[in-house]
Fold:
Amino acid sequence: MKYRLKILEEMVDVNVSHSDSDQTMQAIIEGREYNVHYQNVMDRCFHLDMNGKLTEVFVAAGNQGKHVFVNGHSFFVQDADQLIVRSSRRKGPEEIPGDITPPMPSVVLRIMVKEGQRVKRGQGIVVVSAMKMQTTLVAPTDGTVKKIHTTVDAKVAPGDILVEIEKEIVDNE
Structure:
C-alpha cells in the first residue's frame, strides 16, 4: 500500500508490503528499503527489528493524526491524502469527531452496527484484522450511526472512514 505521510511538516512517500510470513513487512521510505519484523507487545506498543536495528515504538491516536514515539522522540504523523478530505468537511467547535478509522492496514471482519442505530461511547462498532490480530474499533462518543462506508472482507487503511457517527446532542436545561 502506498502512503503519502506528513511527518511534522515534511511530506514523506511510503510504500508498505506485507510478507506472507508472520509479522514481517517491507517498507520503502523515500527510496530506502527497510525489512521490518514487528511484535505487538501491548496495546499501541510495538517492538520493531528494522534491518537488524531493534527499537520500541508507541503509537497514540490524536484528533488529526497519530503521535508516534520512537527512542524518546515524538513525531506527529498524518495521512496527507486524508488531510485534504478532512479540511473540506466543516465541523462545529464543540463537535467530537465521530469517524471510525482503522489504526493500520486491515481487513474488515465484522460490522456490529446498522445505519440509524444509536450507540454509546466505547461500544464496539467494527472488528478488523491486521497482522493476524483482531481489533474492535469503538464509538468515540454517544450518537447515531450516520453512514457505513465499508463491507465485510474489505481491505482498509488508516484514514479510511469506515463508519460515521453523528454525536448525540444533550440539552443541559
Summary: The longest helix spans residues 80-88. The CA atoms of residues 35 and 41 lie 19 Å apart. The mean pLDDT is 82.
